[in-house]
Amino acid sequence: MDEDQFRKAAHSAIEEIISYRRSLPSRRVLSTVQPGYLAPQLPPSIPTEPEPWDAIQPDIDKLIVPGLTHWASPNFMAFFPAHSTYASMLGELYSAAFSAPAFNWLCSPAITELETVVLDWVAKAMALPESFWSKGEGGGVVQGSASEAVVTVMVAARERMINRLTEGLEGKEKEAKVAEVRGRLVALGSEHSHSATHKGAIIAGTHFRIIPASKETGFAMTGEAVERVIKECEKDGLIPYYLTATLGTTSTCAVDDFEGIKETLRRCGKDAWVHVDAAYAGAALVCEEYQHLSKQLEGMDSFDFNMHKWLLTNFDASCLYVRHRTSLTSVLSITPPFLRNQFSDHGLVTDYRDWQIPLGRRFRAIKIWFVLRAYGLSGLQSHIRRTVKLGQYFHSLVQSRADLFGVVSGPQFALTVVTIKPLPPTARAVQNELTRKVYETVNKRGEVYLTNTVVGGVYAIRVVGANPTTQEEHLRRCWEVLVEVGDEVRGEMPPGGGAR
Ligand code: PLP
């Protein structure tokens, strides 16, 4: 493809993208294709001869779009949102054009320096403790995902604990002690922390223990619960080295008791690394009304949130902040001769490869920069506030049919979690089955897309309408669909249970 062909193809692709996005409100959110739909429609091997863009482009609409789940639809209310915006897409375009796996500063100084600046901008906007800003001993780095951030800091936490417990030892004695300590390390996370913590413990090769977080505490992990599990770990000879605390759990958007957890760790004399996973809800910290939570991050070892969930930026843009950057770089920095250069050797620059697991990295800061400038802080704030209000609106609709809906939690960070109540005299014991049936029927219709969860043994439906194009009318329609299906399904349920 030469310049002229690129120009023509790019213009046409952009027109097509705009009309795709315009069409989203009227499309089914969920695809109807069956597993394996694609391969039979594609040739069995690479075309031998080059194909012009005019031949390639029509296949997007014909073959790809039918197999898409439309995450950018205003009717996408499942999981958490994964935003994409035009400003951010332009960033992706430039990132592709500059094509630099900028692992070292020297590999493209602008890429590294812009990342440091935009992450400081974001830290400042969110009133994160200054220990997370780059001017001190901490700083931020853009990772691919919140899960990647968890694994990265877990490895740093593991090595920090091993180093502390083997300090002063040498040679074989040290080797033996390291092996012994490694086998006893345990990572902790609440029963509602994201599965990334369990997965991270597997990757880091350590034990993992779950801390209960019940309905009584709003599904938030408390200091007392942490203390109980730490005591059990001690009895079992395990050493807690890492804990995930969550700001906005996946199931209900609960916020763990940060102060209580810090106090417990202090009292128990544990220097476990505390990572705050704020993958979705962290975005709300751009608004002053949520910044009491930012203050509570003081003393935490790391904090991560995804701009690509709720802050108008395309996947992937996970912002990880650490209090001591050396806790990452001292563990993850390995420098073969081909990576050496005068700037890195003299410690004049940041080499983000030492803050992450892979070597190569994408130029993600440019899309963040575009988003921050194109929306401004006021634009980011009004987006968060508008979607939080949409959550409140949905909750008010739910309350207007209190005979049909039970509220498990919310509205919290735009998320409301509901159950469907059986008609009296049907036993409440069938509520889970009823809610599951309603959930499955709604998604089968495909007009809106929702996800389910199970909290405290209760099967529930999560509704989070927080896309930039989502309006009250979409949440009202979602509520109407739930009411239609809910009334229908529970009407079919015989007293005593067992939906027909
Ligand atoms: N942490 C929390 C609280 C989440 O809700 C999610 C995903 O929704 C994740 C982590 C994983 O995010 P990612 O897909 O960026 O790894």
From TrEMBL:
One of its GO terms (biological process) is amino acid metabolic process. Belongs to the group II decarboxylase family. GO terms for molecular function: carboxy-lyase activity; pyridoxal phosphate binding. Pfam families: Pyridoxal_deC. One of its GO terms (cellular component) is cytoplasm. Gene3D superfamilies: Aspartate Aminotransferase, domain 1, dopa decarboxylase, N-terminal domain, Type I PLP-dependent aspartate aminotransferase-like (Major domain). The keyword Lyase applies. This is Aromatic-L-amino-acid decarboxylase. The modification N6-(pyridoxal phosphate)lysine is found at K309. The keyword Lyase applies. Coiled coil: none annotated. Its cofactor is pyridoxal 5'-phosphate. Keywords: Decarboxylase, Lyase, Pyridoxal phosphate. InterPro entries: Aromatic_deC (IPR010977), PyrdxlP-dep_de-COase (IPR002129), PyrdxlP-dep_Trfase (IPR015424), PyrdxlP-dep_Trfase_major (IPR015421), PyrdxlP-dep_Trfase_small (IPR015422), Pyridoxal-P_BS (IPR021115).
